[in-house]
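#random but structural
TW: two for the price of one
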Amino acid sequence: MNGALSAYVISGPTAVGKGTVVAALRQSHPQVYVSVSVTTRPPRPGEINGVHYFFVDDKTFDNLIASNGLLEWAQVHGLHRYGTPRQAVLEKLAAGVPTILEIDLQGARQIRKTMPEAQQIFIAPPSWEELVRRLQGRGTETDDEMARRLETARQEMACADEFDRVIENVTVDNTVRQLVELIGL
């Protein structure tokens, strides 16, 4: 990659609102490219293949790893794998398009090695209680999944200081304003 910084890693614990914030940013600034991750988990209600994620089976994911088709990948919550497709991201960056990678902590750590120039941004909840409320409010996880996600979230919260910037997601509008300022849109 050459020249200007245009890759931004957005990470944070489960249910902090990363997806909502990134979607709002993209809606108000359509020139920003948001990488669509690949995952082995099944779609949640309302998710569309190729829009929210590329939903693939384990064999397809294995082939992406073997062919160096992912910038990063990780197994999340001890269950499903997620990854960032390499080709689309590199094409957008080469064209000078501000690019957002919305990924988990493991992926953010890998991106620090593969793209050290990327700006790393951690989205934090206003409080632990609010994070739990948001996760419960989604109503998309079983009790076991929720417990697993909350345990992962505790571990992720303890790593916020690894990031270049921490933004507390009190409201989506305020968080988007801070991202717009940071990215320089």
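TW: number two ↓
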Amino acid sequence: MKQTLLLFVFSAFLCGQCSAADLEPTLGKKGKLLLEEKFDGDTLPKGWTGKTGGLRVADGVLHASQKKEDSRLGLFSREQPMQDAAIQIDFKFAGARGINVSCNPSPGELSKHGHLFSVMITPAMWNITEHNDKSDRNSKSKALSSAREKFETGKWFTLLIEMKGDEVIATVEGKKPLRASSKDFHVKKPGLEFRVIGPNEQEVHFDNLKVWELN
């Protein structure tokens, strides 16, 4: 009996970093799995680009941070052409103050320059923001949907971002989903961009990235 209990506790400890069950979209049904990253190796997988900040793979997760000397947010991206899609990723705050997951229009899709939208999460709130057109000085970014929510440091959360047509839904289990729409959201996207908000070298951990077509 004692041995069985010890095995149960040890198994629970090992599963502390296991991925939660996949979240199900509401804008459609999951189609072809386009991308899956488990970060099981010790190097950054192919297709990832670190532009600013720190980015490394260790202990089976992706570690990302902002660096003071860069004078800007930590920025990195993953190539994956998509249009109507569901994006799921686990994240955990490990000292950093926020993350930003965004999509851009593919070249030739829009005359607009800059991001289409982003999902921003901090330990105290989250939102879906439509970003400004960088070629238009009068254009401004605007939060289309936002809410105060707690995302505790040291706890894993699973984020699902759905985009179909001009609609975007962001879901985290146990939180009320955010929903937004805009006339440009339907276009093709070349991949994902991530930003990490300081302080210096404090991290956010990511794991279990999956991208599906959304039918």
